Amino acid sequence: MIITSLAGAGGIGFVALGVLTNIGYLRGGLPAPGSGKPLKEVTDALAAMGDRLKRPSVLVPATWLFLTFFAAGLLSALWRGEARTDGWALAGFAGVLMQNATFMVVEALRFGAASAAVHHRGSVPGLWAVTNVLFGFNQAFLAIALLGFTVAGSSLDFIPTWHAWLGYASAALLFVSSAAAPYNVDGTNRIAITGLVGWLGWATWIVAYGVALLNL
């Protein structure tokens, strides 16, 4: 299988697994960053998670694998040896790698907060604050990935106009949401809808790019 086909399948697989993982977290009662729940309610929910946190998290490494192959294949498809587009494509690839690294820390913090809720409740406020802010800041890397790959793909006529505008709009929404991350330290996110719409746009953008890669 050539890298572009693997990348196309990886992009679509990333979105599918991401949705399944988040459904698993929601059904398990995991407090979401920015949910605005009181700290005591968050702590009680984390203490009660148990294996309900572990089971969905088994899928998480596969999402990073799929997303990395998607980004690598997309980079190879957009690489032309031209400075005007290659730099943008590299920026997109860097954004994906940074989001993978950052979200790995977010996932690990969830386990740390859940363990603290059981064994040392006084540590939960600090861990929860770091989780909230880092989760918000991570959206900047999604915006970089969207912007870089969208500019490169649009400049090469690799993607249609609607796909490009979806990328630009989603990048703008995610960047605005990331800039508000310091104000989410207590778990309250007054512009959470901005980040959610941006994330949905990012997921749709990936699926569309995945289909394009499969059709090469």
UniProtKB/TrEMBL annotation:
Keywords: Membrane, Transmembrane, Transmembrane helix. Coiled coil: none annotated. The chain crosses the membrane at residues 6-26, 58-81, 87-106, 127-153, 165-185, 192-214. The keyword Lyase does not apply. This is DUF4386 domain-containing protein.
